[in-house]
Amino acid sequence: MIRVLIVEDDPMVAELNRRYLEQINGFILIAIARNVNEALILLEKHEIDLVLLDIFMPGMNGLELLDKIREQERDIDVIVVSAASDMHTIKKVLRSGVVDYLIKPFEFERLNTALSDYRNQALFMRNRDVMNQAELDRRILGREQQGQTELNKGLCRNTLKAVWEIIRATKGQAFTTEEMANNVSISRVSMRKYLEFLKQIDILSMEVIYGTVGRPVYKYRCINPESNVIKRYI
Fold first, then answer.
1. Domain span including residue 204
2. Distance between CA atoms of 205 and 196, rounded to whole angstroms?
3. Which segments constitute the Response regulatory domain (predicted)?
């Protein structure tokens, strides 16, 4: 689980961010800090992987906290969530190496995209000692190749598009190969190929559910509904 600290002085916004965070798999909220001093204490007390950081706060502002995190060379990532939309602030924040920058007010989908992309990158990097240029471009830098990419042998673009539209409609709910095959009206064997392909390009995750009797059930879940990777194939 990715351990998160929310730094936000507005109680209503902090609560909203907390509720949003609870809806996204792979994250656990460690604490909420109302100001920079509280945040510094919590960072000393807890292991934190990611900070959701506001800029405008009483006393020291979020930029000063960001500077302190970088000066101390802490292994902590930061996503800024702020009403600050001026280019001076945005440039300063981006130069500090933040993961993402969300301008208030924002929709849940935008935060979901930011956190999902961060989670996928973090999990990918945990399992790699080195990576090649293609992996760095696609998985970390977010640079997609232009134009359509060849599909795996035996897959059809039109069918993949139909599968993808139905998967997006699940809104993150888990589903089985059989359920998806019935929805698209193709065989389970064929559907399994499409689902495995989407898993390979990090659109889906798969979990194994063991019952008391019988075979285990394999369920898929869409983990990156806003990914642009799929556009290369459909």
1. 157-232
2. 9
3. 3-119
pLDDT tens-digit map of 152-199 = 778 888 889 889 989 988 888 899 999 999 988 888 899 999 998 898
| Cross-sheet strand order for the sheet of 2-7 | 27-33, 2-7, 50-53, 77-82, 100-103
Residues 183, 162: Cα–Cα separation, whole Å? 9
- Which residues are 176's β-sheet partners? 219
Say if residue 74 is in the same domain as residue 183: no
Does the pTM surpass 0.70? The reply is no
Backbone φ and ψ of 32, nearest 5°: -120, 130
Residues 119 and 162 in one domain: no
Query: Cis ω on the peptide bond leading into residue 105 (within 30° of 0)?
Result: yes
Task: Give 161's contacts (C-beta < 8 A, 6+ positions apart).
Answer: 234
